[in-house]
Design a protein that fits this description.
The structure holds two protein chains of two kinds. Chain A is built from two helices and five strands. Chain A is of the alpha+beta class. The N and C termini of chain A lie far apart (32 Å). The chains are: A alpha+beta, B alpha/beta.
């Protein structure tokens, strides 16, 4: 099963098995990874599941749709070129080994 | 005044967030989370959306896995009600006869369905959509439903209508007033949503009173309206709003008025009892400090964070901007701010195409913004309103006005 590594704002790393079709956000909340709030439950409505994706892995992620792009302008921590909403990062085989860093704050 | 033991009544979004945030903030004392449902704490918004639609299961509704609560030393007391608060002894009594002492008590008791006093309300087939058990029952019925009547055209009724139509079930919505979501959106948005639902085949009766719910052999068979019309139905969803669960507080002598009355820091008149979320009536910065009671995940979770900050020695007034959302088929509605009492609405974007925002004003004061399939506006709206930055009606109407720049230029406030 593909794995995703979550890096907390202070550098703590957690690696999880993430089934294909499950979002990076869902896996985090299912396993109690701190740092992803996901207040709306994964509907791309709240911008509290913000993560920074490793630059060289961005291309492996699903393409960003307009709704996500828009909501990223409302994140509590600064948006960067590698910002994504983890509810929209649904696991594919290409994403195995993904490393995402959580921002300082989600709310 | 060191707090060593926090007891939380209610394990919904607010109650869960109190427990989780206490530990995130390094609180080392005892945390007891009491909920009257038998399940681990779960998310409610997906109940009326992906969960009812069968796209996700209960595992994806859970706030956290069971191990999280043990790891975080959060004592879960599930499937048990709280029957009384003894303020002098600082303890609560449980429905199983136990007593639980507290140093600080957080009431996150939420709200319950408003049940209309209609003949036939007890019939089999009358459904609700608030908690997991109700949703499971509704979901099962929907599978074999031949025609559904929905009483009340609010968020829940319309979200259910969209899912039922998606499954090909005939849907008739009966609404007492003359438009959908009248309590929360402007007439333009009501008109748009009403039309879009009609396009998918939803039938509406506005300004309509229900006379009775009729049945045969104990099962719902029809609904009779005040004008004598009869609508066939083997499923009736009651979605006419909720009432705050405030009786526990009232019985303990705490002030209640459309919710448990709390101050700017969400504290009741008893310094050892806070109230948060759907059950709390609080003076919002965004309602000119008039008491409001909001039914929203954002409100519950942000209330919880505010109370936790006070409990760990960083007290502050609750200031968070309220925001809400609803998903109804392809319609995405996002609301920032509190628009109650608006006098003027300015539409920005393409109303006919259904991609627009409604800027709601009282005089020149921007109260809130409804965004329909226009998420960028919502993101900017949240920034603008949180920073109390105005956008004039003329600017809102002018598409060449740079909303992004206005939102991003947030001053230190």
């Amino acid at each position: 099963m593909p794995q995703v590594t979550y890096v907390s704002h202070n550098g703590e790393r957690t690696t999880l098995d993430v089934p294909l079709g499950t979002s990076v956000m869902q896996a985090a909340t299912l396993h109690g990874v701190d740092g992803i709030v996901a207040e709306c439950g994964g509907s791309c409505m709240c911008a509290t599941c913000h993560v920074y994706v490793e630059d060289d892995q961005l291309a492996k992620c699903p393409e960003m749709e307009l709704g996500e792009d828009a909501m990223l302008d409302g994140t509590a921590s600064p948006r960067k070129p590698n910002s994504r909403l983890s509810c929209q990062l649904v696991m594919t085989p290409e994403m195995a080994g993904l490393v995402v860093t959580m921002p300082e704050t989600q709310t | 005044m060191a707090v060593a033991r926090v007891v939380i009544v209610g394990a919904g979004h607010g109650g869960f967030q109190i427990a989780a945030s206490l530990r995130q903030n390094g609180f080392d004392g005892a945390v007891v989370l009491i909920g009257d449902e038998p399940h681990l704490p779960y998310q409610r918004p997906p109940l009326s959306k992906d969960y009812l639609d069968g796209k996700i299961g209960f595992d994806l509704l859970q706030m956290r896995p069971e191990a999280f609560f043990a790891d975080q030393r959060i004592e879960l007391v599930m499937g048990v009600g709280v029957t009384a608060i003894d303020r002098s002894a600082k303890s609560v009594s449980l429905s199983d006869g136990k007593r639980v002492p507290y140093d600080h008590l957080v009431l996150a008791t939420g709200a319950r369905n408003r049940v209309p006093p209609l003949p036939g309300i007890e019939l089999d087939g009358v459904c609700y959509l608030r908690d997991l058990a109700e949703t499971d029952a509704l979901k099962e019925r929907l599978g074999s439903c031949r025609s559904a009547v929905i009483i009340g055209a609010g968020f829940i009724g319309l979200e259910f209508a969209a899912i039922a139509r998606g499954k090909g079930v005939p849907v008739h919505i009966v609404e007492l007033v003359d438009r959908v979501m009248a309590r929360v959106v402007c007439p333009d948005t009501s008109a748009h949503f009403g039309r879009e639902h009609q396009k998918t085949g939803v039938e509406f009766s506005f300004g309509a009173r229900i006379e009775r719910i009729g049945g045969e052999g104990g099962k719902v068979s029809h609904v009779t309206l005040g004008d004598g019309r009869t609508l066939p139905a083997d499923l009736v969803l009651i979605s006419i709003g909720v009432v705050a669960n405030e009786s526990l507080a009232a019985a303990a002598g705490l002030a209640v008025e459309n919710g448990i009355s709390v101050d700017e820091q969400l504290l009741t008149a008893d310094p050892h009892i806070s109230a948060i979320g759907d059950c709390a009536s609080f003076p919002s910065r965004h309602s000119q400090r008039n008491p409001v009671r909001l039914e929203a995940v954002q409100n519950a979770a942000d209330h919880a964070r505010c109370v936790v900050n006070r409990l760990v020695g960083k007290p502050h007034a609750y200031e968070a901007l309220p925001w809400f959302w609803s998903e109804q088929g392809a319609l995405r509605l996002q609301i920032a701010g509190l628009t109650t009492g608006f006098q003027q609405v300015v539409l920005r974007g393409d109303y006919e195409k259904g991609e627009y925002s409604a800027f709601c004003y009282a005089g020149d004061k921007l109260l809130g913004i409804e965004s329909i399939n226009r998420p960028a506006d919502h993101a900017f709206a949240r920034r603008l309103l949180a920073a109390s930055r105005g956008v004039s009606p003329a600017e809102a109407a002018d598409l060449s006005f740079d909303l992004r720049a206005a939102a991003m230029a947030r001053p230190a406030s």
